[in-house]
Amino acid sequence: MALILNLDDYKAPQLEVNFGFKKVSVELTDDTTSKMSAFMLDANEMLKKADKLTDNELAKLSREEAKKRLESVLGDARDLLEGAFDEMFNNPGLGVELYNRLGKSTVSLANVFSRVNSEINKANQRKENQKLNRYNRRNDNRKKK
Asked: Which of 5, 20, 90, 105 has a CA positioned 20 to 30 A from the CA of residue 59?
């Protein structure tokens, strides 16, 4: 008896994202998932730094220094997010285009990135659930014999 497997059934799923002006897709490999998690952690850390800049802290600085400090923190987060979109979807310039289409809002770009991350997590969970279901059905069939 020979076992024949259709490897397409076991391939990593694709996530297609339609941004309205462009459709892109990403294969949900282990590498993709780990990169996405690392980007999320880094982006969240940078945005927390921006949130921690209190009014009192900024009030102690000159107007120009406060502006530079805010722009620096938000700029770092924006650069990270723009690069993440470019890398994840293998589409150079996608991050900058999204940023511009979102009204040049780093927070909005982070929200879109978070939504994409959420969909990747859901797709990975569905994949795991399908594996579990196949395993359970096989074991149920063996018990009936």
From this structure: 105
